[in-house]
Write a structure and sequence with these properties.
The protein has 116 residues and is an all-alpha fold. The protein has one domain: 434 Repressor (Amino-terminal Domain) (Orthogonal Bundle). Helix content is 69%, strand content 0%. The chain is built from eight helices and no strands. The radius of gyration is 17 Å and the shape is elongated.
Length: 116
């Protein structure tokens, strides 16, 4: 089976993760060692990129390359984190342990009321 890269899909995933992590195009470009204009072109499906650049962007976003290649359905099928999982992980990074415990309590309360 021949597989071709869907640069449009990759650009959308990069933009989605960048926004989830509250990074500007400038900040991502700096971390990935490319120009902000190049990030804009990638996100707008107006250019292709080298594997090295793709690796740099994935590292800057702290995601795997396959995460940038695959949609959430494929990620679930492979048992990997979806965009929602990534968003939750990002949000929880700044929480203290007591904040996390409070959040768990709130989730448990939500689950009780949701199931009624």
């Amino acid at each position: 089976m021949l597989y071709t890269l869907d640069y449009g899909q990759i650009g959308k995933r990069i933009k989605q993760v960048r926004k989830m992590k509250s990074l500007s195009q400038n900040a991502l470009a700096e971390k990935a060692e490319v120009t902000p204009n190049f990030i804009a072109k990638i996100e707008g499906n107006n250019t292709h990129m080298s594997i090295k650049t793709l690796i740099n962007i994935a590292n800057a976003l702290e995601v795997s390359i396959d995460y940038l290649f695959l949609d959430d359905k494929n990620m679930l099928e492979q048992g990997k984190k979806t965009s929602n999982d990534l968003f939750i992980d990002t949000m929880l990074q700044d929480f203290s342990e007591s904040d996390k415990e409070l959040l768990i309590d709130m989730i448990n309360i939500f689950k009780v009321y949701k199931n009624k």
